[in-house]
Amino acid sequence: MQQISRWGILIIDIGIIVFSLILAHLLRFNFNIPTTLDYDNLFYGTPVMIAVRALSFFIFKTYAGIILHTSIEDAQRIFWAVLSGSIFMATLGNIGFYYTTGHFALPYSILIIDFLVSIFMLTAYRALVKILYIEFRNGKKDKKFVAVYGAGETGITTKTALERDMGNKFSVNAFFDNNSNYRKKRLLGVPIYSGKFLERYLLANHPQLLVIADNNISTDKKQEIIELCLKYNVKVRNVPPVEKWVNGELSLQQIKEIKIDDLLERDPIQLDWENIENQLKDKTILITGAAGSIGSEIARQVLRFHPKLLVLLDQAETPLYELNIELNNTFPHLKHEVVIGDIRNQERMHKVFKSFRPDIVYHAAAYKHVPMMENNPSEAILTNIGGTRILADLAKEFQVKNFVLVSTDKAVNPTNIMGASKRMAEIYVQSLNKYQINNANANTYTKFITTRFGNVLGSNGSVIPLFKKQIASGGPVTVTHPEMTRYFMTIPEACQLVLEAGCMGKGGEIYVFDMGKSIKILDLAKRMIRLSGLELEKDIQITFSGLRPGEKLYEELLNPAETSLTTHHQKIMIATVREYDFDKVKIVVTELTHLFDKQNNNDLVKILKKYIPEYKSNNSIFEELDK
Length: 627
Prior knowledge:
This protein is an alpha/beta fold. 47% of the residues lie in helices and 15% in strands.
């Protein structure tokens, strides 16, 4: 359908006002115009009225809008244009004619009728053209039947957003809601069903899309709905909370596809926000590894509590630059400092601590990729152990109040260099904490706290981004082993628990997070494929690549020799681990870092295995050392 030119629209509008004037006269006299009517004044008054209307159209640019996309703003322009023309004719126009001819150009009754008819016809024809265009355009496409879960205000808004989209022909033919007040009722002409009939509906109607438009739905119920849709190959989308709508309005682009995170999410974590705020507000906080997925999220969380200064430390220039821009936009009034530096450089770190004097340190900097560290053990040891030692010693020297080490479940019964190096880092900070208590003033010592959790969705090194890339490129999706399982949590969830654990820690604890149930990586891959609207084996394949160096099938949160103690927070436990003598630990760590210069991987790994007896290599060249 071709667009009508601006001059074409103006000509049509003028034609409509001519017709409106004629109709106004007919209506005024009940379609029986008397012979005594003064046709001379009517003959002169009508052209003047048309000229006034044309001038008002030109001033208010009523002809400039695109008719196919007529909006309320176009209707408002028409209203003011017609109103101003009518007021002009009712005042100056009629007064001028009266003093010239002794008669009014147009009777006031006709002006009122003309005003109403003109507004109606000018807006109605635009709306009619838009409706016909939508029907013409969408009529060429097959209808996309949609179900909406949630029959409240958000559900109504969702239906409107779906059906007004001109690029797709969505037709909402069912609402689902468990509110008993909606039973056997219709909403905007669409039937409302109980949620218990959802599976029957999906099986019988095969909708192309289901939109979850209920933000108060429980996590378990939401996952149940998504699983049903995946079972019947129905795409699922989710409506964001109202506060995230752009300018208070919902558009189709904001109705997002369900992500794998939605299938793995748990009920929101209940945190002691007041306690966290008391610890972080007006404090100087240092985050190492700030450009990484964990470090950057800790930064976002911390800034909500208005610290005096947030110091972001990382050696990755570009990601740190991007984080700086993001935080400047999101928290423009909060002060943060970006520092490029390597935690393995003693002099550089000393300068950082001396310059900023942090009150709290969140140490998230580490090498985390298991296979890469298995091939580069000296780098893992120098960063994860040596770097942690430098930071912990400086925290003690500069009387940092809290030092929180972000560790991993791979430190439990480690089968790889990465896990063993993180376990050694745990041992160092825990033994240093005990050493301080025995040899320092209790009012000045640093509380060293360790947090240990599993895989984080979307983090650097996580399997999720890898699967997304493989699915986007058409596959195959590579899974290491059909029986491999992992624990997962979202990045915000993990970082919130880090903040909570940092607040409750008295020093020396290793906090273990409730990771929920372990998940098969194979099942995870299958879900992601189905969420992408693809069919396994038909559209995309899954292949098994075998365990990579250092990997194990199952991750553990506790060593069999370890137990856990509960805390006031149901998702946070304290691992009771073997304690080490700091003087001996310091000797071992010093020996490890000094051996870096010799670059003898076997010697480095031997020392780790000797000091961490539960460290048994798996699928690695270092298995020989276990014999």
